[in-house]
Amino acid sequence: MELVLYDTALRRKVPFTPADPRRVGIYACGPTVYRYAHIGNLRTYLLTDLLVRALRLLGHGTFVVQNITDMGHMHQDRLEEGEDKVIAAARAAGKSAREIAAFFTEAYFRDCRRMGFLPADVFPRASEHVPDMIALVGALSERGAVYGGGGYLYFDVSKAPGYGALSGAALGEGATAERTDPSIHRHKKRPEDFVLWMPAEPGREFLWDSPWGPGWPGWHSECAAMALKYLGPEFDLHVGGVDLRFPHHENSRALATTATGKRFASLWVHAAHLLVDGRKMSKSAGNEYTLDDLASGPPGGGGGFTAPEFRYYCMTLHYATPMNFTWGGQAAAARSLARLRNAFRKAAERATKGEGDAALLRDRFREAISDNLNMPRAVAVAHEASRSAAGGDVARSLSREWDAVLALGLLPGAAGEKQGPEEVPAAVAEMARERDERRRARDFAGADALRERIRAAGYDVSDSAEGGAHLRKLQGERGGNE
């Protein structure tokens, strides 16, 4: 069954044809780790998880790269005007920016496990890939697309073929495309040009040497450099929130295509915004909810909600439809999920029957996810199946197959349910075995990358004195920010 996806660049649904069905290359924009992820962030990251799960159900293999932005983008003396999120959070907590980034990276992984997200194959940290960003700027300079002033380097967007095709931005009509220090704009030739390298001021924590002097890279070069490193100049899918379409994705695409002369991502998929009670989330409005806030329940009292219940709530709307979170809507979603689980469990206890119905239901579920990840329709098929004649082994088979995508725990022991503490998934054990082999081969970078994937999957790995590794399941509870 052919997967059809909405391509932001083409502004229409198109058949998805991967270059290699055995290894669909996906780049997903990840978190800037200076705070806990809020539910709007998690709804966006759910899109990547559903996409990967749907591709696997349809018979494809996947290779997913999701960045961790763990370094700041503002001059230290301009924090009051335009807060550098990582550094400002560190200042407030009395810690180094790297300590803050490490703490919230682990918090992000915990939230991903609670949401049932499959871990990416690679979680590159921006701070560890600055040499790749410097190399990218060098390649752009060789193509005459870089100019400088006042110690800054800028990308000349007029050198980027097709600039604006992704977002609809037109040259000469745009405003300054930065989330960085306003002082960098004074040297630019045109508003749309953006910074590639910034000079470092004394005392800056994030600092690297470069051919242009000590400094640090601009935001947009990060994802472009890391995507090129792990996926090459052409890959299948780039995923993120609609708020990143411009300037970040437009500019990342411009850098990569100008540097390589290749296509970069074949198809761009964006998740719509999440509002709370019709309003944008913000700390000042008191509506920037996290999973812990959901677990505590609505202000003023009432029961709390689990991460799978929030996941279900998200799947009652299409990923490209703006979502308006309300406590009443979340409560209704929790009740609906409870009914679905109970119905499947009762069906599993009945005598086995309904094989004919199951074949039709399977086709309809696959048709739903193949139609641009139409999860509301897929969930509706699951509800219909739970009320159908399907029972016993048939109901159990449907729940296992569909929970590989839904991850809601339709039956005890199905995808989305918590495993016993003694169980280690085969995929995690295999990663631990491969990590041990890489350590013995002195491939420490590869071993460290595998350890991060193991942690993202909910386990920690330690090395024994006599050789070999031990796996330990991480606790899901969130600690304080001491």
Description:
The chain is α/β, with parallel strands linked by helices and 482 residues long. The protein has 3 domains: 19-271, 3-Layer(aba) Sandwich (Rossmann fold), CATH 3.40.50; 302-406, no CATH class; 427-473, no CATH class. The chain is built from 14 helices and 14 strands. The strands form 5 sheets. It has a 4-stranded parallel beta sheet with strand order 4-3-9-10. A hairpin with a 5-residue loop joins strand 13 and strand 14. Helix 4 packs across helix 5 (219-231). It is globular. Mean pLDDT is 86; it is low at 74-83, 176-181, 415-422 and 476-482.
Reconstruct the topology from this structure.
Layout: E1 4-7, E2 12-15, E3 24-28, H1 39-57, E4 62-66, H2 85-93, H3 97-115, H4 130-142, E5 146-149, E6 152-155, E7 194-199, E8 215-217, H5 219-231, E9 234-241, H6 245-260, E10 264-271, E11 274-276, H7 291-296, H8 307-315, E12 323-325, H9 327-349, H10 355-370, H11 375-387, H12 393-406, H13 426-440, H14 444-456, E13 459-463, E14 469-473
Parallel strand pairs: 3-4, 3-9, 9-10, 11-12
Antiparallel strand pairs: 1-2, 5-6, 6-7, 7-8, 13-14
The first-to-last residue Cα distance is 50 Å
Total separate domains: 3
CATH topology grouping of the largest domain: Rossmann fold
Mean pLDDT: 86
Q: Please identify the oligomeric state.
A: single chain
State the gist of this model.
With 482 residues, the protein is an alpha/beta fold.
